[in-house]
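re the bet — no i am not wrong, look at it urself. input seq straight from the record:
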Amino acid sequence: MQIAIVTLFPELFAPFFATSLMGRASESGVVSVHYEDLRQHGLGKHLSVDDTPYGGGSGMVMRPDCTVAAMDAACAALGPGEPVHRILLTPQGKRFTQADARRLAEKSRLCLTCGRYEGFDERVRSFVDEELSLGDCRASSAKFSGDKSSKREALASAYLRIADSGQNQLRVKDCRLCGLRTNYHC
C-alpha cells in the first residue's frame, strides 16, 4: 500500500506515521508514505500557493496550478504501478464512512490532498477522482480542524486497517470492520 499526502505542513505527519498501528505498518513495509510539500510548487519569491477565487468571492483559495503540480509530483514519487486514486479532502465532499474505507482498501495507491485558507479553486476538482469529508466539525486547534491533517490521518488509518485485514500482517482484529459499533476488539 502506498499513500501520498499533499500538504503545506508535511512535518505534522511524521509522528502519526511513526506510532501505533501506522508506525508498525510503516516499519514492516505494509505501507509506504510520501509527503509532498505543496509550498515547493508555489510561485514567486514567497512560493505563494493561494489566490483570490476564480469568478470572485471572499478570502483566498488554493491555486489550481500549484495544487495540481503537487498532486502530479506526489503521484510520480510513488513510482510506476497501478493508477493512483486521488482524493480531495474538503468540507463539501461526500461524508467518509466505513463503506468508503472498505472501497478504498481495494486500491493499492492513494493521494490525499487537503487544502487551507478558504479551500480549493473550483478548477482543482476536475483533477481528482473524488472528494471526501469527515463531516461537520469544528475544532479549537488547526491541528484537529477539518481542513488539516486529522482528515488524512483518519482516512489513512481506516484504509490501512481494512486493506491489511485480509493479509493480517499487522494482526488487527476490530469488530468495527464487521459493522459493529464498539471500541472493543473481537
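see?? The domain at 2-178 is CATH 3.40.1280.10 (Alpha/beta knot). told u. also Confidence is low (pLDDT under 50) at residues 138-149, 170-186. so pay up
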